[in-house]
TrEMBL record:
Positions of post-translational 4-aspartylphosphate modification: 57
Domain Response regulatory: 7-117
Record's protein name: Response regulator
SMART domains in alphabetical order: REC (SM00448)
Naturally occurring in which organism (per UniProt): Corallococcus exercitus
Length: 130
């Protein structure tokens, strides 16, 4: 994977889910920055390059997904960056381009990610031919 691979910011407090999603995305040729809650992500955004896509859980400690979205909107940060919410909550918050209900299927997640952020086409086996 190269530095030119698309960058996804994954904000999820459950370590097992975070690790599984990050591994899946990395296998598809994406770079993944992992944060454990909204405040962690806010701090990360202040010192790192703008991601091409955000995957956001809603129910998290410290700063939940809704508070994070509100803060992004107020600061006009990440305008134009698609935000996909993944949550067990049936609520589709303003600011998200789409909502995936947990448990999220791998196929649904990858369809949404590819729709909003095409990968470099480089997985661990090299360029995709499909």
């Amino acid at each position: 994977m190269t530095d030119s691979a698309p960058l996804i910011l994954l904000i999820e407090d459950e370590e097992d889910i975070r690790d599984a999603v990050a591994t899946l995305l990395e296998m598809e040729g994406y770079r993944v920055a992992q944060c454990i809650h909204g405040q962690d992500a806010w701090n990360w955004l202040e010192s790192h390059p703008r991601p091409g896509l955000v995957l956001l859980d809603l129910m998290m400690p410290v700063m939940d997904g809704q508070a994070f979205l509100k803060r992004l909107s107020e600061a006009r940060m990440l305008e134009g960056v698609p935000i996909i919410v993944m949550s067990g909550s049936p609520f589709h918050p303003p600011g998200a381009v789409t909502y995936l209900r947990k448990p999220v299927s791998v196929a649904s997640l990858m369809d949404m990610v590819r729709h909003f952020l095409p990968s470099s086409g480089e997985g661990p086996e090299g360029p995709r031919t499909s």
